[in-house]
Amino acid sequence: MTTSTQHSSNDQQVHVVLVPGFWLGAWAWDDVVPHLEAAGLAPHAVTLPGLDDARTDRSDLTREDHVQAVRDVIAPLEGDVVLVGHSGGGPVIHEVVDRDPARIRRAVYVDSGPLVDGASLAPDLPAGTVELPLPSWDELAAQGSSLDGVDEAGLARFRARAVPHPAGVAGGRVRVSDPARLDVPATAICTSLPAEMVEQMANPGPPLHTELGELDVTYVDLPTGHWPMFSRPADLATEIVRAARA
């Protein structure tokens, strides 16, 4: 696990922990981090276990490994903590909130959301699957992960740096149980779907299986595809700053 960090002697510093989705490391936030630093926040971009190198053994990694990795980033921080989760990183940060809700000032979901207890992002993986490689662009689009707004250079960088996602994490069941998790304020930055539509779909049933509707949520529209850190990084940073200061 690696992080990109700005240190501050100010105990009241607001720390923003950036958790990427499938196939991504801390590098995915490279164009967002400078804007957060310029706004006076302390960003910590996380590379979760198994996402550091294509040669890494991912066979035994679990959701709890990813949850604990984020908790390890938070543990030494002094001041307020805002969690940001993109895509598959959203359920991870929700599990982190569940483990210690009093420690988190706000959770920010970027084209993502908190899953209900027992839900899985990939419940139908074949037995013995160890990892999930980055699909083709057409396959991603068919799955609803729009690449709108990402230029050819961005796509090439994404393809070159993507790492297979651990199947044990993708197929693992979310575990949340502390009712206090629902008291932590949240922001939903809606990029693939309009905020109005996301709000209507924010219930425990299909297709989202989300607890978003049970939270104190601020919905924000940021129209683009599923990867705003690549397509609209400055605008995404602006919304993260607003959420961190809310």
Automatic annotation (TrEMBL):
Domain AB hydrolase-1: 16-237
Claim: Hydrolase is one of the keywords in the record: yes
Keywords noted in UniProt: Hydrolase
PANTHER family on file: AB HYDROLASE-1 DOMAIN-CONTAINING PROTEIN-RELATED (PTHR37017), ESTERASE_LIPASE_THIOESTERASE DOMAIN-CONTAINING PROTEIN (PTHR37017:SF11)
Domain of life: Bacteria
A molecular function GO annotation: hydrolase activity
Protein name: Alpha/beta hydrolase
InterPro entries: AB_hydrolase_1 (IPR000073), AB_hydrolase_fold (IPR029058), Sec-Metab_Biosynth_Hydrolase (IPR052897)
